[in-house]
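Worked example

This section walks through a single chain of length 425. The input is the sequence exactly as stored; nothing has been trimmed or padded.
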Amino acid sequence: MIPFFEIDEKIEKAADMAQNKCTEQFKLIDEITQYNQLKVQKAFIKHGISESHFVSSTGYGYGDRGRETLDKVWAEVFGAEDALVRHNFTCGTHTLAVALYGILRPGDNMLCVTGTPYDTIHGVIGISGEGMGSLKDFGINYSEVPLKDEMPDLYAIKEAVNKDTTMVYIQRSRGYELRPSLTVEDIELIIKIVKEKNNNVIVMVDNCYGEFVQKKEPCDVGADLIAGSLIKNAGGGIARTGGYIAGRRDLVQKCAYRLTTPGLGKEVGATLGMNRELYMGLFYAPHTVGEALKSAVFISALFKGFGYDTTPDYDSVRGDIVQSLGLENEESLVAFCQGIQSGSPIDSFLTPEPWDMPGYDSKVVMAAGAFTLGSSIELSADAPIREPYYAWIQGGLNFHSAKICALLAAQQMLNKGLLKEGYGI
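Given that input, the structure is written out below as tokens.
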């Protein structure tokens, strides 16, 4: 019997069955976690991290050795020549935008090879919105290669890349799509095809949700630039804000000129006492990502047993921490998110309802009871209210807290007569 919470014994039994199915996947996750934790630990030791690296700077932030060394540690961990890790990246979309504006110039050609990117980047590229200062407004050309059978179309990518292609853009995670997220091996194959066609193309990877899911990162297999958010995987649940860009030194420098100003770049930027949590976040990240992966695997096994479509399946190879559940109708979707919220350590008393969330073209329901507002490495569940009514779940600072949230979601659906009859319910 589960203490402290009222869970129907049939759901408890289903949870035991689901967790038993996950044994082999949990072992694989532990192996990856150990590898990545040791990689991070070695980088900290190599660069001699000490209390002095956590000292706060103000004003211009000249000579902030903590900031400068964090960039070196980050580059080491992510297989890059250089990195730009800053608390003043406001979100993942902002970080990606800085990278795109930093690299691309009027007349350049950007080619996205993973279909249409997720909603919040549309305004940056110019897919939607007018006169906001998008890439399109600055004369940067955009095109994309549609997916084929929910995966990158390698033949079409080869045909689309030519001598005029400036950047190939790869979105590793699925966004609000049901395609599989890309593994590092998938990314390596795309890079090989692109570089064989035009070796001068800059390959940029949106690495959000993918950090530390595998032993390798995109820069390890030839990506020129990667970017991500610190309130997702890479901040380990410790960083309260921020983002990172890593890759070729010359490209990172251009991005730094965009973030601050040409001529100053990485040399300025007060850290205001944030260094400690950025270092701690990176140190915690491999373990935290492992816990998030276990949470996703368990949720997939549990709800597949109830009879719902799960993407990916619990025993699939994963390229990110995101788990999708096909809940079939708006009522089940909202009930699921309300159940997740009810188990959250923060704002458990709130009841999520669909609303017009900025950056999205339909109402969104979101369960996100997090210590850091909007953190996607802490357990959250959200979904656009549109067919086919899938919920996207990510995060889990520890498996045990995420597990009870999943059971409360099932209980909420059962209480409302919505839970399907798998596992004998």
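What to look for: Residues 13 and 185 are 37 Å apart (CA to CA).
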